[in-house]
Design brief:
Blueprint (H helix, E strand, L loop, with lengths): L4 H16 L3 H5 L9 H16 L1 H12 L6 H16 L5 H14 L6 H12 L16 H7 L4 H11 L1 H11 L6 E4 L4 H7 L3 E4 L6 E6 L6 H4 L3 E3 L2 H8 L7 E4 L6 H9 L4 E6 L2 H8 L8 E5 L11 E7 L14 H4 L4 H18 L1 E11 L8 H10 L3 E4 L1 H10 L12 E2 L2 E3 L11 E7 L1
Parallel strand pairs: 5-6, 5-8, 6-7, 8-9
Antiparallel strand pairs: 1-3, 1-4, 2-3, 9-13, 10-13, 11-12, 12-13
Length: 444
């Protein structure tokens, strides 16, 4: 009997994540897997994300059971899938998980490895950890936290130095949880329509426009298909909300997939917005998100060398980054990222910010943001920009949060906790959202 559709999809996605450096969440929501039934899609998502979150712990157990340091990737992924089910999914019988992983190896044309996989999994199925798994840290150190919560040690050491050991542990614990699906309502009756379609919602934690999904699949609703609601993390929504009133010409330097651009267009219907994206196919997909009446122009260009001559009142530079604030949603990042990558990212981010600032009108503002927790990508970029251009004045994000709170947009009860110095900073595990950084610079 062949492997189930859910496990087959999970296997193929995990293989592509490794081979192509693809993102699991994008693959799971691609057209390729749109025909999966709702239960199969839910199981495939659980398997893919679970294996990626706990990969180092799974690999450690597989090495102990097999005594082989280098396995073919297809064999290793099949073993990871079965072991994840053994350890974390109580309702799935071990024999079913074992049998289907053996079938997946055969399907991947690794039939000669099937007896090996069967033997290793039989050994692993008797491991006491497979009936009781908990992440308990007895040794309060970066090494112990990294081991217990399946994170690279170097990353936990960095967070310990920046945020302290207790908060580093909170971040790691949060990264291993399933994040909520958060919506942004785009029409007054969107919640009522979702309720009629069987979607149970609760208020967001940060913003009045946000809703959290309690039950139901919002992506299957007419409200989602007609874009009356969009999926967007609350921290991402907050970045777009920092764009205050009074801006007529707005530039979004790195706009795709367009969530923040759309949020800005919704709140500033009279503004003319230029949305820049370097990749043509992403620009085309992004353009489809904007309503016909919105004054949004899509431009395919490199944000570091913008082919634009006129100035803007407001520029959003939501730059490409490491994404370490989104590991709960994108766990594969922690296994790909290397310390040396941060310098290359910093240089690219600074080049984009410099270009963004060059297109500011006098008195105009640039909002610089990332979904990274790393200093090189955040404070260091701002400090370098100010050193190079003394006409850029750093504003205090606390003032903008006060504005959002006074107008009822921000509902978080402690706005001061969202600020570190002049910067906006949300921290996973401490705040109910992804980890984002933002700074606001103004041209004197």
């Amino acid at each position: 009997m062949p492997a189930s559709p859910a496990r087959t999809a999970a296997f193929d996605i995990l293989l592509r994540v490794e081979h192509e450096s693809s993102y699991a969440s994008e693959l799971l929501h691609s057209n390729t897997y749109a025909t999966l039934s709702t239960p199969d899609h839910a199981l495939a998502t659980e398997l893919v994300m679970g294996v990626l979150r706990w990969r180092s712990l799974l690999d450690e157990a597989i090495l102990l059971a097999s005594s082989i340091k280098k396995l073919d990737l297809e064999v290793l992924i099949a073993l990871r899938l079965a072991l994840y089910q053994f350890r974390y999914l109580d309702r799935i019988p071990h024999r079913a998980a074992l049998h289907e992983s053996v079938e997946l190896v055969k399907r991947a044309r690794k039939s000669s490895a099937a007896p090996f996989v069967n033997a290793v999994l039989r050994k692993l199925s008797t491991d006491p950890l497979c009936s009781s798994v908990s992440s308990v840290v007895n040794d309060f150190s970066p090494q112990a936290i990294a081991a217990a919560y399946a994170h690279p040690v170097w990353l936990v050491e960095r967070w310990t130095q920046t945020y302290g050991i207790a908060l580093a542990q909170q971040i790691c614990r949060h990264d291993q949880t399933i994040p909520p699906t958060t919506l942004r309502l785009r029409s007054p009756n969107a919640q009522e329509k979702l309720a009629a379609e069987g979607i149970s919602l609760e208020p967001g934690k940060l913003l009045s426009s946000a809703r959290r999904v309690n039950s139901g699949d919002a992506t299957k609703t007419q409200s989602f298909r007609s874009a009356h609601v969009v999926i967007q993390d609350e921290a991402s929504q907050l970045i777009a909300a920092l764009v205050g009133p009074g801006h007529n010409r707005i530039l979004d330097c790195c706009a795709a997939p367009g969530g923040k651009t759309l949020a800005i267009a919704d709140e500033h219907p009279d503004a003319t917005i230029t949305a820049v994206e370097i990749h043509p196919h992403r620009a085309r997909l992004m353009q489809k998100r904007f309503p016909a009446h919105a004054k949004v122009q899509t431009l395919v260009a490199d944000a570091r060398t913008l082919p634009i001559s006129h100035p803007f009142d407001l520029v959003l530079a939501d730059v490409p980054c490491s994404g370490t604030g989104t590991l709960a949603r994108n766990p594969e990042i922690k296994w790909r990222l290397k310390p040396q990558d941060l310098r290359e990212l910093h240089d690219r981010q600074f080049a984009i910010l410099r270009s963004a600032a060059a297109h500011l009108a006098p008195g105009g503002r640039v909002i610089y943001s990332t979904c990274s927790l790393e200093k090189e990508e955040n404070e260091d970029v701002i400090e370098q920009a100010q050193k190079e251009d003394s006409s850029l004045r750093l504003l205090n994000c606390h003032d903008e949060l006060d504005r959002l709170q006074s107008t009822g947009v921000l509902t978080w009860p402690d706005p001061a906790s969202l600020v570190q110095g002049p910067y906006l900073r949300t921290i996973p595990g401490l705040h109910p959202c992804d980890g984002f950084f933002a700074a606001i610079l103004e041209r004197n």
